[in-house]
Amino acid sequence: MRRLIFGRTNAALATALIPTTLTLAVVRATGSAAALGVVLAGELLPMLLLLPVAGVVADRFPARRVVFAADLLRGAAQAAIGVELLRGPARIPELAALSAVTGAGVAFGTPAVRRLVASVIEGADRLRANARLGVAEGLAQMAAPAAAGGLVLAAGPGWSSLLTAGLFAVSAATLGGLAPRRATPHVERERFTAELREGWRETRRHSWFLAVVTGHGVWHLAAGFLLTLAPVIAVRRLGGDAAWVVIAQAGTAGMLIGVFGASRLRIRRPLVAVAFGGAVYGLPLAALGVAALAPSGALLAVVAPTYFAAMFGLGVLSPLWETTLQHRIPQESLGRVGSFDSLISFASRPLGMAVAAPVAAVTGAAAPLLTLAVLVAGANLAVLSLADVRGYRGVSPGRPRRREREAVAARHFN
């Protein structure tokens, strides 16, 4: 488990360094928001287009090899970006093309990582592993912007990209050598397109999965609105720049505490907890909607705790959801089914961020935020009507180990 966490921590830190490095490089060179949008879209679009294909690849080949190749691809793209930036001012077409290569690496690595965890970690240890991975990724996301900004200011964006490439290389070397606990059963493979269709049929077979993923898509869309509109509301109506800093830090703390506690809480029905974890994201949306209607500095004392609660819920949700997929989806289909989950998540939040400002310009900020608060709560709590959600008990930490000890004792005395 330590090797897995070390490798994924390096990959998470490298991934989190990229946006800040590219943003500072492009703004330094052009000062153009449009140019920055082109470069960032260069990573996002290939990622979205290739995820279904990547799911098939993750199921056809050993997960560790796919992760190894994906990290090497991302590392090579970042090394090329570093060399490009060291040669002179950023050239947008080259950066956009190399960002597209990075996006392809993200697409192929995402479903393969989920399969890798399932293949090297078994039973109740998966929840612990997913929780620790969540903490590592959360800390990486906190540290990366400051680290990238400091490195760019001290040495330039080219060196930040080269550091990112090195981190991806370490991740590839670490994760590529992980061996599965047990051999994956041989499955006769069909044509690529047939396996793609079979992945969709397998996805539709799990009604609980589609219902929960729909709820996730709604809160990701709402997160795009919140992250776009909340800073403006905080600065203009809740007390200035410091108000947004307080809200953001409250959310960060909530996320880390939630992820850290997910494997320590006695959660008997994980999908019920996942439903409530998504639904609680409606609280800060409602609080910000009220703040947009009736501005008052005192409302900061409401908005910050609700955002803490929302991010705590998402922190608990993340490892529980990953562990549930690894237990309930057949391993030979996990890459394809999981790719649909990632596709909805990756697409919904940028969509929310893209349309938030235009919608708010027409309706005001309060209406979309309050509407989304209701939709988030409704879409996530609606899954509780499914027996597959309410009745699933998961694998509790410690339970498999007790069974193992009992089996060992039985063999000893017999």
Characterise this structure:
One of its GO terms (cellular component) is plasma membrane. This protein has 414 residues and is mainly α. It has 16 helices and no strands. Helix 10 runs antiparallel to helix 12 and helix 11 runs antiparallel to helix 14. The two termini are 33 Å apart. The model is unreliable at 398-414 (pLDDT under 50).
CATH topology of the largest domain: Growth Hormone, Chain: A
Helix content: over 70%
What is the H/E string?
A: HHHHHHHHHHHHHHHH
Number of domains: 2
Number of extended strands: 0
Structural class: mainly alpha
Q: Let me know the largest β-sheet.
A: none
Q: Mind telling me the C-alpha Rg?
A: 22 Å
Quaternary = single chain
**β content, as a range?**
under 5%
Q: Specify the number of helices.
A: 16
| Mean residue pLDDT | 87
Question: What top-tier CATH class of the largest domain fits best?
Answer: Mainly Alpha
CATH architecture of the largest domain: Up-down Bundle
Q: How far do the termini sit from each other? A: 33 Å
Shape: globular
Within CATH, the superfamily of the largest domain carries the name MFS general substrate transporter like domains
Contiguous runs where pLDDT drops below 50 for at least 5 residues: 398-414
InterPro entries: MFS, MFS_trans_sf
GO cellular component, one term: plasma membrane
Pfam families: MFS_1 (PF07690)
Subcellular location: Cell membrane
